[in-house]
Amino acid sequence: MQKIESPKNEQIKQIKKLQQKKYRQQQGQYLLEGWHSIKEALNNRPEQIKLLLVEADYLPLVTALANQVSAGPTIEITARVTETLSETVHPEGVFAVIAQQETVVTSAEQPQPWLVLDRVQDPGNAGTMVRTADAAGFAGVVFSEGGIDPWNSKVVRSMQGSQFHLQVLQVPDLKNWLLAQRTAGYQLLGTLVDPKATDMRAFQPASGAYALVLGNEAHGMAPELAAVMDVNLYVPIFGHAESLNVAIAAAILMYQLQLN
Amino acid sequence: MQKIESPKNEQIKQIKKLQQKKYRQQQGQYLLEGWHSIKEALNNRPEQIKLLLVEADYLPLVTALANQVSAGPTIEITARVTETLSETVHPEGVFAVIAQQETVVTSAEQPQPWLVLDRVQDPGNAGTMVRTADAAGFAGVVFSEGGIDPWNSKVVRSMQGSQFHLQVLQVPDLKNWLLAQRTAGYQLLGTLVDPKATDMRAFQPASGAYALVLGNEAHGMAPELAAVMDVNLYVPIFGHAESLNVAIAAAILMYQLQLN
After folding, report:
1. Which one of B154, B244, B253 would you mutate to disrupt binding with A, by most A Cβ within 10 Å of its Cβ?
2. Could you tell me which SMART domains the record lists for this protein (chains A, B) (predicted)?
3. Topology of B114-259 in CATH?
């Protein structure tokens, strides 16, 4: 097994560049950190793992799993390399270079809904929404241009490995993507912070074939998207809060729609 | 109107100390920042406002409201004072010293539920839970010893002014507080990440008189609390996520229970 001891190693320098969006997009890869998420990758999507970088103490755990699957090679690293690569306060010394996902067409037989983020900005919100969409049994989460990059390290940390359970896409033209989904038989559900929209309690999707769109934290959904929705939903407010956090609204809606 | 120009002013130094938990507890006060939250305080709980600190450009807005209510005095400050007091990247130059709330007994006629945080640690989670509890029409949120301080500035930022719409309490002995609530006729609802607990879909509270307890991010509810609950609920997971973020689980449960 290859071992890299120095943080100044050329390969480590190249991998560290994946902390920048520009290089992630050039490479089509991102850097994943932490045993929990990497275990999810090994168990669910080993083909996406291009490289594993592991300190000695985690090596037995990692190789026991990695040897059974089609993951890329493992390199042993030192604590000094971990310090260079890590973006967390208490790093575990386990990293992976992950290939960003390709569009995967889901089966039309048992359609599952999609969650769509229209320019959501906050990394914690976006990552949490992926985790919640996973729990709610969604097919995937679509990120738009102009919002946070799904492979930003803070987003990825909040996903907690859920990106290996569902599809995560980034699409250049959200309206086009949504209209194509409608042609494929999906209902388009928007969300508005407006009591004149449809109370979520009064709506039931026709099937699991729907796309639920949540908008930007400050500005909500773009009006040109709201205009093409089949329905725009709102979450009722019983108290005096003006609105809900976007990740919270998404969770309440996803569960409400799935349980209806 | 008094004007303070220097960040080295003795009163400003004392106010800045409220950024530390020790001084907040000594004084029974906390420092609030930003026009949106301060407007909520002026509109809903002016008697809690001990002092307003405002830069010139916000003065007309603030005094127009403050003159109509029983808020404490207003002091004009400079941008240099704002820089010293602010904990945000783009400060608005509007601050208030707020008295922490006293226990308020709510009417027993139309009972509203309580949200209870058993050692929740993350400030964003805790603040968001207060905001969501407000939206869901809860009476208040109870913070326990051993969890994040409710008046930590990050918690307060995430509350977005909801602390002026409901009660926020910190209690030294959570179990005692809960048992006293039960004596007063409240149902005690715990939460567990365990499919052997009661599926939230199978449970309906007898009335609005209940306390819903959410646990620590890593360890969940303390077993000694779970043992005294009337029922322990879990949020069903349809996908492959191991669990939900605690603020997300709280939101799904609060809305599910309120809509049931």
Report:
1. B244
2. SpoU_sub_bind
3. Alpha/beta knot (3.40.1280)
